[in-house]
Each structure stands twice: as C-alpha cells, then as structure tokens.
Design brief:
- The chain is α+β, with helices and mostly antiparallel strands.
- The protein has two domains: 95 residues, GMP Synthetase, Chain A, domain 3 (2-Layer Sandwich); 30 residues, no CATH class.
- Helix content is 53%, strand content 13%.
- It has a three-stranded mixed β-sheet with strand order 1-2-3.
- Helix 3 links the parallel strand 2 and strand 3.
- Helix 2 crosses helix 3.
- This is DciA family protein.
- It comes from Methylophilus aquaticus.
- Pfam families: DciA.
Length: 146
Amino acid sequence: MFKINQVFNNHSGLKPLLQEAEHHQRLQQLWSLAAPEFSAHSQVIGIDQGALIIGAYSGAIANRIRLLSPSLLAKTQEICQKSRQIKGLNLNAIKVKVQVKSPAPVKRKHIKPPSSQALSTLESCAEHIENPALQAALRQFIRHQR
C-alpha cells in the first residue's frame, strides 16, 4: 500500500503541491516556535514579498500580534538562522489579517410529538387546573399537536 507522500512524489504534477505543503508546514512550525502564545489563536497564511502573513482568529489577537510584531519578527529571524530547514528565509515584516473562524452549525434535535395517549392525559389535566392562563396554554398546545 502506497503512502500518500510516495503517490505525490511519483506524480510529476503533484510533487510541487507536496513541496508547497511541506513549506507551509515548516512556516507554521516556525510561527509556533516564535509565538507559542499565539499559535493556538492564529495560523500562517503564507509569505508575500518577505512578509510573513498571519491569519488571526479575532481582532483582539490580531492587534496583540501587531503590537508585538517587532519582537516576534526578531524571534522569527533568530529561529530561521538557527534552523537548517528554513535557513534561507529572509523575513522583513509580519502582517496580520483577521480570519474569524465560523462556529460549527448547530444541529437541531428533532423532538417527537407527544402520543395521543399523552395528549389525552394532558387534556384531562387541563380540565382540573384552576389557573385559567395555564389551562388556556395547555389547550392551545393540545390543539396545535393534533
């Protein structure tokens, strides 16, 4: 059974895609090392003209990264010089874009309608209730369910 890397390496059209994915993964690891406090709240988008582009998950995180960008850039450059894999990377800036994560769609639970026996029991209870507002609400509920 082939591993996915073998498939990508053996196909000339897919090999550049694998190299790009590995480069992006190295950049993400670089960002995690340089800014561990922000790595859970942001991700590397890419590099544009020597600027490391970071996608922050909120405006507040983006502002904190912008404020700390000179020190984060210095850390990043230091890590690049020490690293063998990213040694030739010359970064001159860190740019931040806000990329809010959308919440997962809420799954609505399907509630089964009450059985006819339950509705009959509610109807008999409604006749004995002394509170007219509650009695009217129960009767309206029963009418709606039938």
